[in-house]
Structure formats: structure tokens, C-alpha cells
Amino acid sequence: MSFGHLDLSRVVGSGEYSDMKLVCQGCEFKVHKVVVCTQSPVLAKAIQGVFQESRTGIINIENFEPSTVSRMVEFLYTGDYGGLLFPHTEASRSDEIKKPALNDITASGMMLQHVQVNAIADYYNIERLSELSRSKFQQACQATWDAQSFMDATNGALDLSGDGALHEVIATEAAKNIHTLLEIDHFAGIIGDFGTRVLRNCIKKAEVDRYKVIQLQLDLEQEHSKLQAAEARVDRIIENIGRCLQTMRERGFCRNHSCMAEYQCYIERRGQSFEPVYTLRCAKCKCRD
């Protein structure tokens, strides 16, 4: 949702003019219905219904960590997430959510972070946040691939998120790195022994098919070279015949000064059968033109 030139990050950071609270494990996030409810049909229904939340304006979030709620709130106000917003709570600053240093976030932690954000986006039906978290997850996989970290994130995704599109992203990344993953017992535990056997045989078949494709490509290149050579021969033959015809049109007498007969000729064929060479000869003195 676009709010034009307004700096909503400052508003959520201060909690000014808030008319709604998200509470998670003692952490309060003072937010605004116009921002939150227009992007989450689930939260909108809760705050507008006949439940306690509609009277108090307070939504209790029990299934997620405060850091994940923080990233969701950050997205709702800025369209992105990456830092952590301090919740508005009576707790001391030592109890607030701290933003970890960038180099403190492991590959596993980075992937899990995006999985957790995807899970809360799926839970509250925030479609654009689901899309963003999937994209960030895929980028994290490609930028810092680590098989064990990927497996940890996969477990988290299967346990936490019902987003089928995220599962598809995970399956795609797994397929790209299937050789590595098949060496991890944990991966076999997820897909089962039978699934592991199927994948191993699929890989073997793919290798055989790949060899066949390479061989076909080589054969095709050879045939293409043969075709190019044949086309070149045809061009030379046509050019040769063209020169003979031009000579027949232009020549009136034999070019042999001792003959000088009115030009009558025949065509002599020489060379190889696959590339003949045609020559004009005078019918009287047999000299070659």
C-alpha cells in the first residue's frame, strides 16, 4: 500500500497516533489500523469482528517470535524488512529486541529468518510480504549456499509455513543441489528412503540422457559441417558452369591462333564424382577454353 510522501517508518518507530496494538511475548507494537488492516484481511477481520480484539484494539500474537512480528510491522510501514524495530513496551531497553550485527547472522539464520517472515505473512494473509520473503529466501540460498543450513530452513518451512509457493522455491533449490543433499542423512529423513532411491535413480538416468544429448550434439555438428561442405561444393560447381555458359555466349572463334575456326565446342567433365569440374574444348582442335 502506498502512502505517497509520508515517512511511515518514523510514525511506527514512535507509536504516534496509533489506534491498535500487536502484543507478542510482552512486547507491544503500536500500529495504525489504516496501515495494518488494509494489508492483512485476517487482522482486519479480527479487529472489526465481535471478538475482544475489536473492543480493545489489541491483537495477541502467540505463534511467532517478537523479532518476526517486528519484521512484519516493518514491512507494513516501509514495504521491506531487514532491520528490527524496537517494540513499544514498558520493559527496560535490555529486554528490547536487539538488531544483530550483520556478520553475526549465519547462513542458516538468514534463511530461517525469511522462512519465519513467510510463515507470519501466510498466517495473516499478507500476500506482498509472502512474495518478498520468498524472493529473499531464494536470494539467500543462491548467495550463501550451505547444505546443512538449507536443511534447517527446509524443516522450518515445512513446520511453520503453509505457503505452497515457498515450498516450490525450496524444491527448486533442492533440485539444483540434489547431489549434495543426497549425502545428508537428514534429507533422506525428510523425503524417505524410497524417495531417496527414486532420486538417485533419476540422477543416474539424467546422466545417461545427458551423455546421449552430448553425443547427439556432436553428431549434429558433424552433419552440419558436412552440409556446409556440400553447399560449398555446389556453389563452386554452379560458378564453374556459369563461367562455361558465359564463354559460350561471348566467344565467336577458337582462341587457338592456329585454329581460329568458328567457335563450336563441347563440355569436358573432369575431377571427382562428388565435385566435377567442367571445361570447354574446341570441337575442331580440342584446345581448352
TrEMBL record:
SMART domains: BTB (SM00225)
Domain (BTB) ranges: 18-80
Superkingdom of origin organism: Eukaryota
Coiled-coil annotated spans: 213-240
Pfam short name (any one): BTB
The entry's keywords: Coiled coil
CDD domains: BTB_POZ_ZBTB_KLHL-like
InterPro entries: BTB/POZ_dom (IPR000210), SKP1/BTB/POZ_sf (IPR011333)
Name of the featured protein: BTB domain-containing protein
